[in-house]
Amino acid sequence: MIYALLGVAAAFCAFIQWGDEIPLPNFDDVNQKQAKYIHNVNKRAEKEKFKKTKFNRNPSGFMTVEEYELLSVPKDRMTVEIEVPKNPTPADMVYVPQPAYKIVKYNNPPGVAEISLNKTFYQKRQQNAQGIVSPDFSKLVYPSVYYYPDSASTACDLFVINLEEAKSNLDKILTANVIHRLAEPILSTDKNIDNYYTFRTITPVDFSSDGSKLLVKEKIGNTKDGIWKTTPVVYDFITNVSYSLVEVRDAIAYYWEENEGLKLEDKRWDVYPLGFAADNPDWVIVNAFAYTGEIPVNLGTWTVNYKGEQSRLLTFKTDAVNISMNGYKLVKEGVVQPNITEREEKQLKHIEKLQKKKKKEEDKIYVKDLEASYKAKVKEMDKEFKEQQKDYKLRKRIQGSTSGNEVLIKYNEIKEKQELKEQQRLEKLKQKELKRLEREKTKNSVNN
What whole-number distance in Å separates Cα of residue 173 and Cα of residue 139? Predict the structure, then answer.
């Protein structure tokens, strides 16, 4: 115990004797170390940002929640670009027949357009039917038919797709996609599914000559009983208003009851919209028939204003009516010749090869510029940090030699001298560069 106390006393005496040589903590150095640590953290964050940008130039599934939510924001469907799907060529085949298309009149002959449902309609429960293109190739209108298995009934909507302008007429139709359709249909049938086996469809008949109006026929019937009624409907694209031409049916029924004593309400009859009149696009032509079980009876060809006004009988001879044909559609026209397909395939492969090479070069330049930008940013951060440390040491040195307002005055004086010296240095560099450019200009003029 005595020796332990003597050891403690000796250590205390040594501390008193040599205390001046023990280093004390420098709090200013702590501030500098903290600033350097923050600077290194910022540099590391900049490096991570550079690596992340370089890695994400080819999209991958790795992302943060914020990035996922940003990419999940709903986009305007009208601005989404859709690539035309390409049929893959099998490795063991040189030639794959490609269908050829051509543009023809839609309503030819007048009034024959009908919706044709394929075998898979009742399995998929929806089908997009044949579309009709306006005379100026600015829009495509198509019906979408729905099947409800609970009641074995159908309903229909009529949608519009605005076609792209900077393409040929054929490409406009080929590249039309339902994702670019307007959100709301312009016409719709009743979607009540209480009546079993009831079908309701809307079939485009034709556009007017100026493309401002569309004539359609709404059919209502029963799959076990046939068609009940067909109603012509005109949609005005200028006013966005539709007109149901039910008045023409009333006019036909009234005419036959007054002149022939025939009550059509007790008979099975219907109308067939044929199109717009060739001499007046504001008038719609319809033909009426009565069913007899054998040959239908012609009830006359009638005309009515597109708003459903002033119905009148034209003739009982359908050949005497002049009907315009304005809308267009696509039909298959055989297949492309093998030599044409093979030539196009070689051209496409050459183009794809050039595009890949160009994309690779662009990616290389992008990475190079990205790296240069990162290095320039880090260099600027180092320079800024160096200036801050230099400024900090200057303030510290001035505070150690002066006091009061003299600190700020002396600091401003030194900073002005430093800025003046830096400006002079930059001016010398500028003059040196101008002289170099002048020498190169003189040398080039002499050589030429």
Answer: 9
Residues in Cβ contact with 270 at an 8 Å cutoff, skipping those fewer than 6 apart: 227, 229, 230, 288, 289, 291
Pick the closest to residue 200 from 230, 244, 156, 142 (CA basis).
Answer: 156
pLDDT in tens, 73-91: 887 777 777 666 666 655 4
| Residues facing 269 on adjacent strands | 290
Question: For 206-227, how does the pLDDT look when each residue is reduced to its tens digit (9 = 90+)?
Answer: 999 999 999 999 999 998 888 8
104-113, 240-249, 285-294, 369-378: least confident range? 285-294
Q: Which of 77-81, 158-162, 309-313, 377-381 has the lowest mean pLDDT?
A: 77-81
Q: Which residue has the tokens 């910022």?
A: 42
Tell whether the torsion through CA atoms of 113, 118, 123 and 127 is positive or negative. Answer: negative
- For residue 22, the model assigns a pLDDT of 44
Look up tokens 């002499």; give the residue: 446
Q: For residue 138, which of 109, 160, 108, 107 has the smallest C-alpha distance?
A: 160
Length of the chain counted residue by residue: 448
157 phi and psi angles, rounded to 5 deg: -125, 155
CA dist list (Å): 207 to 132, 134, 235, 306: 8, 6, 10, 12
